[in-house]
Amino acid sequence: MTQAVPKAPSVAAERTPDQPWRVPLSNVDPDAELQQAAADAVASGWWSAGPRVAEFERRFADMCGGGTALAVANGTAALHLALLVLGCGPGDEVIVPSLNFVAAANVIGRVGATPVFCDICGEDDLTLDPADVESAITPRSRAVVVMHYGGHPCDMERLLDLAARHGLAVVEDAAHAPGATLGGRCLGGLGDIGCFSFFANKNLPIGEGGMVLTSDAGLAERLRLLRSHGMTTMSWDRHRGHANTYDVLVPGFNYRMDDIRAALGIVHLERLAARNAARGRIVEEYRAELDGWNGIQMPFRPRGSASPAHHLAVILLPASVSRDAVRSSLAGERVQTSVHYPPTHCFSWYRDTARSRPLPVTESLADRLLTLPLYPDMEADAVSAVIDAVRVAVRSPRGGPTPPT
Ligand SMILES: *Cc1c(COP(=O)(O)O)cnc(C)c1O
Questions:
Q1: Which CATH architecture group holds 32-267?
Q2: 27-63 CB burial, b ≥16 within 10 A, e <16
Q3: Among candidate residues 286, 283, 337, 288, the one with its CA nearest the CA of residue 306
Q4: CATH tag, 272-393
Q5: Which atom of ligand 1 is nearest to the CA of 77?
Q6: Which among 15, 25, 165, 325 is least surrounded, fewest beta carbons within 10 Å?
Q7: What is the C-alpha to C-alpha distance for residues 178 and 155, in angstroms, rounded to an integer?
Q8: Nearest CA to ligand 1 atom 3
Q9: Per-residue model confidence as pLDDT tens digits over 20-55
Q10: Residue 154: left (phi > 0), alpha (psi -120 to 50), or beta?
Q11: Is the CB of 106 under 6 A from ligand 1?
């Protein structure tokens, strides 16, 4: 039986598998080592959360310089658990940037709290603006979910300072930022809880998966409980003879990861630093050729203390150019593009449920953002093909000020 498929939302979705992209937005490279790791996990006979999950967690926490890392089903589950253990619920407000994937706002709503959208800094820094966060604070504010856009660090010093002064919890949505550092410290390890995603197009891809990270032992215990039905032990502990029975302390979820995906995660963790660096080199090629060219800008010019994860290659088109026209021109060259993100406050649900605030920077930049292809093993001719196609699109009449309707 076939399902009704909604109309393609954008030019990027118009291509079918028989017209493959010449340059896709991202890719996965299922090489022999990854295939072997998954096959070994399958052959081991332990398919649910077991020794590989435990090893993945241990190694992830080591990479982050300590704390407790708990593997979960996906990044959204990580955010959900984080808000719950921090006590966010009905009557609370949680501040979150509107220029974000919708997951954080959705789980804020699902725990019964109200999302309060805040603005971003500006053309060079698309992360949330600490000054606007501060002006969004009310007596009901409970937490702020900061998002390291594209793997670039937010201004954590100011955000942590104002959170401390106002008694707010800080959740880091580090879905874009595994392996990124600020002042030598790992993103996701600076606030109360860090949340990571290992979705297939993220920097540490395993299919579906996520991680929560905290250095607070009490929060770690509550996260562990809620991840697995509120039960005091998991089957792996019982299998090892560590426990014969269990108690239920709180109504929890099944938000666990399995050993097959953890096996992929262990392999990818070893490669993460090199792959993030490779992304960074491609971003610098884009920057050298496109930043400042005919009004194009490339945000996040290098900053001394930050070592970003380079999840996304985002350019800011000149205001005079139609993004849709540029995207169709690129699609015509079989170059896939995307938009990160349509601002959350503009979606139907959030127009009605969020406390409304002016978001002038987000609104002035959102229609000009364009995400270009980026993956670690992107070939040099793919990078130049994208650069050439962007230049043609921005210069040509199709990319000019009058968009086709
Ligand atoms: C991908 C992503 C998420 C959600 O992660 P999933 O693993 O897809 O549930 C949350 N926030 C941001 C910023 C993301 O990019």
A1: 3-Layer(aba) Sandwich (3.40)
A2: beeeeeebeebbeebeeeebeebbbbbbbbbebbbeb
A3: 283
A4: 3.90.1150.10
A5: 9
A6: 165
A7: 17
A8: 75
A9: 899 999 999 899 999 999 999 999 999 999 999 999
A10: beta
A11: no
